[in-house]
């Protein structure tokens, strides 16, 4: 049996949007179950995100430390951001985030993995890129504000991030998934066997 997620859509008899925010909203669907019963499902509607695991020549990963109010924690994360424009090319968005948050550019880009962050309550899809051949970006640094104004930047050995993830000391999903996927890829077919940066992404179709 092939272990592969497959698209499927059950019948929705009614839909409302009880809340609309700046970037996301909450939707309520009446969904018909396999036994014929109709149940209510509330979930967050999200535009999608990209994240960048930037790996330097010394085997260190570029990470950011940022306050996240919903969980009342300052978390170590990898650069990430929303897909603000419908149909936006995720590679272009990832390159923008790496520049804005770290003032870094990369010459080699691959798709590391694609995930749904919380599919039981949100439709957010994230594409995590691997970026290599790093260098300082040209020009002035991007001006940050709000939580990002207090952000810390570091380069941490990959092994230390894996240890922290398994020890329950690191909790950001893109960081944890990213470093574990990186380690698995290195132990398998190798990083050059990863999907190209422009690989199709059915969860968030984009223009070339």
From TrEMBL:
GO biological process, alphabetically ordered: nucleoside phosphate metabolic process; ribose phosphate metabolic process
CC per GO annotation: cytosol
Keywords: Hydrolase
Alphabetical list of SUPFAM superfamilies matching this protein: Nudix
Alphabetized InterPro entries for the sequence: NUDIX_hydrolase-like_dom_sf, NUDIX_hydrolase_dom
Ranges of residues in domain Nudix hydrolase: 44-183
GO molecular function, one term: hydrolase activity
Designated name of the protein: NUDIX hydrolase
């Amino acid at each position: 049996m092939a272990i592969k997620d497959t698209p499927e859509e059950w019948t929705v008899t009614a839909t409302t949007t009880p809340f609309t925010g700046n970037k996301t909203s909450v939707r309520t669907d009446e969904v018909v179950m396999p036994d014929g019963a109709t149940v209510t499902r509330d979930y967050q509607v999200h535009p999608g995100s990209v994240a960048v695991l930037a790996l330097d020549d010394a085997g260190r990963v570029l990470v950011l430390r940022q306050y996240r109010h919903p969980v009342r924690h300052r978390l170590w994360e990898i650069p990430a951001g929303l897909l603000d424009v419908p149909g936006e090319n995720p590679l272009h968005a990832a390159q923008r985030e790496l520049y804005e948050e770290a003032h870094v550019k990369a010459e080699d880009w691959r798709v590391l993995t694609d995930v749904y962050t919380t599919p039981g309550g949100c439709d957010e899809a994230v594409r995590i890129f691997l970026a290599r051949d790093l260098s300082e970006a040209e020009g002035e640094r991007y001006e940050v504000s709000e939580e990002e104004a207090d952000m810390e930047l570091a380069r941490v050995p990959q092994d230390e991030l894996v240890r922290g993830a398994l020890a329950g000391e690191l909790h950001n999903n893109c960081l944890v998934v990213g470093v574990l996927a990186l380690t698995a890829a290195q132990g398998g077919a190798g990083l050059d066997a990863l999907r190209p940066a422009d690989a199709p992404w059915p969860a968030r179709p984009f223009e070339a």
